[in-house]
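Note to self: the last two entries modelled the partners one at a time, which told us nothing about the interface. This time every component goes in together.
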Amino acid sequence: MSKKATKEELMIIAVAREIKDYERILLGVGLPTTAGSLAKALHAPNALLMTEAGIIDFKPLVPPNHIADVMCIRGYSYALDLFNTFTTINYRGFVDKAFLGVGQVDKYGNINTSFMGGTPKTGMRLTGAGGAPDFVSYAKETILTLKGGEFVEKLDYLTSPGYLGGGDERDRCGLFPPGSGPSMMISPEAIFRFDKKTKEVYLESLLPGIDLTRVKSKVPWNLKVANPLKPFPAPTDDELDYIRTFAPQHCIPRQVLMELAVKKFLEFAGGKHKGKSG
Amino acid sequence: MPEVTGNKIMTTKEAISRFVNDGDHVVIGNYTVGTCYNQIMEIIRQRKKGLTIYSQSGVFDVEMLIAGDCVSRVVSTYCMRSGGRSGGSMLERYQRAGKIEVEDYSNFTYNARLTAGAQGYSFIPVLPGIMASDVFKVRDFMGGQKFGVVKCPFTGRDLPVVPAANPDVCIVHVQRADKFGNAQYWGSLGSVSWACLASKRVIVSCEEIVDHEIIKSTPQFTIVPSFRVNALIEEPQGGHPSELSGCYNLDLLFWAMMDLANQSEKGFRAWMQEWVYDLPTRAAYLEHYVERFGKEPLDAIKARPYYSAPVNYGSAFTSMWDEEGKMRLFDMTREGFEKFMEEKGLLIDVEKSH
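The predicted structure of the combined assembly is written out below.
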């Protein structure tokens, strides 16, 4: 009988289990780094973690704030610059799995992290392309995390190419390593995979307590569903213990975290230390 | 040729005044960490105008410059939406109002432009997959100049290429430099050295100016050599509120304050009045920080030691003459050697030959 877990913890664990020992893993910001750290600590000790900033083969001691965070570690094996990380490691085929976040995603795993609603000049700016397009292109597999993002029929902007129009279009166009592309996607509600032939996204497992109808209602096409649905993997005590030790702040919803942070901030800004000048 | 000789140590005020001009293409050299916030704030205080900003991982640096009305154009790959979904960002506000133009690249293609520029090439191939992305297809102010396509003369393959970027000036903050301007940086390398080397002028601020002997013993950390650096500023805490390896962590509480301020334009401008315009130097900024929040928050984020293992760059000897005054190659004293040259008839008396 395993311990109870939050949705956030279940997502991290599901992503971490995708990492196999000895794999070379490119981590995007946020959930992926906690998942990567968990994998390395528990079941994939020889996995090699890296970021596009050129921090190659590292072990985070606390959750990184971003992909260039060098304060969360104690040293690393190989200091490379960004340009050479993308060429000598990524383009040359040494990224086994890339973990990236998603703003908008379509049926074939094409991703938008640039603009939503309108044109680049009028729409809502998201963070931007960052490193994603070139990693989704050349990593052997990409795993997507859909935290606040949405499913759309047609992306407002195609930042990072998935399976393009579906089927064998990605492999046929000759721009990408054969067989590469998104292999899995996780949201706070479900795990999704991509059909091996049609490359269409389908739902594989529901997170506990989530209603299938609810998930399908958020998808503007008739979302395919695995039959039977795969049961969501139950967390182990070791996994939960690790996440809670390594990244307690990632175990709770962002909103709850923000409430705590604002409270702490107001203490700070209120000049808790006023009068105790240094 | 920009002046790179003589004493280049100066204040931030002088460096920005002399080396950043209205209309310049300015690259923020730092990659997310160690961002040269004081140099950025000084650009704003000096009300520089019409800048094209190159930024790879913009957060508040780009936001401030835009809000300071310093910017006409931004070449970017990533800019934090610090106001969140509802709050937006200054970048978005100004772009929508038509006050700035923005060209969005990806991290690799942006860096590639600087790499090409640093190496003196006019263009450089980038990875073919980008041609399937709207980063390649959608053009803003760069239009046909944003990307090109060439055919590889050896494989016949179509390759996307980007034009070289040679910004007018690179502003960068690092851990240390010597008085000649040899700047050393470690942590996450990103595109920092490319930004410096691509640029016509380089302004380096550092936590500490150290003896040349220290730089000489660790040449592998030098990211830009002295002869490329125009101005050198010693600026402890020059990267605050961002982090710098070996020096200080990210000031998350200060960051939260900026985040909250940027929920609205009005809020951000009020923040800028207090922290940028009203504080003429970094020393004044730090003093104000301590007045408001005490010293403890800064102490709490100070980096603890984790030193690199020393490496031995030594060699067996550094003079052709040993400790006893004998030549290492052949067993002769200096006197004996000169006598030998005389006896062999090798020495010429130049004056006598006239």
